[in-house]
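EI: anyone free to look at a 275-residue chain?
SC: sure, send it
EI:
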Amino acid sequence: MQRTLSPQFDIDLKSLFESIYFKYNYDFRHYSLASMKRALVHAMNRMGVNTLLLLQEKVLHDSECFYDLLQSLTIPVSEMFRDPTYFLALREKVIPHLKTYPSLKIWVAGCSTGEEVYSLAILLQEEDLLERTTLYATDINQRSLEKAEKGSLNLDVIPKFIQNYQESGGKHSLSEYYTVAFNSVTFNGNLKKNIIFTDHSLVTDTVFSETHLISCRNVLIYFNRELQDRVLGIFHESLCRKGFLGLGLQETIQFSQHAKSFDPFVKKDRIFQKR
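SC: here you go
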């Protein structure tokens, strides 16, 4: 169902986000309007409402409706070893530096349903680093975090993930890291034992922890310029000296006020190093 968006839609959108922030303390006011409009239109079609005012009424009076809407607004879509060259660059270029530390902290910001953090855990295990690494996986979507912590995926997505894993420089068979039951796979417990899943908002929360690597991929594209600058500032403060920041392939720090705080490390794969 296609919708023609009127100027009133923008006004009602701002009202909706102000109301959500006031009642639920989730702040979408500085997200990219274009991405939020697409997400809201999708949610309206799915939830059977014709206007944002009706949607606002539903989510303010029914918390379950809000958390249903949150699934659309936070775009919980991911895949293992997404953009395999990024993980290959981590393996070949970044890991040699990380091996010089006696212990490591890695932050996966906006971890969604966990595919990326498990990909990193597998990579670290293959490079003999997992035992001395603490991985922090954070997101604002509690349902996504719960799914991530369970560590289960539908079996039908695995063939794509196997291909990504092989292209990312995987040293074994991906099947060594999970068990299959019925139509799902569950990651081995040894991958999860060093992962801490926790709620953290890049919009309203502050520095998380001093880390050696932050991987925040395909999250900044949903933020406006002001919010991108805020988040990059948090990442800069959170990284140790010479720490690494990985972004999505469509993301950049080039126009940020923090651009001079980072050096391109693997430019084509959007990996930067703190100066």
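EI: DSSP finds ten helices and ten strands in the chain.
SC: 👍
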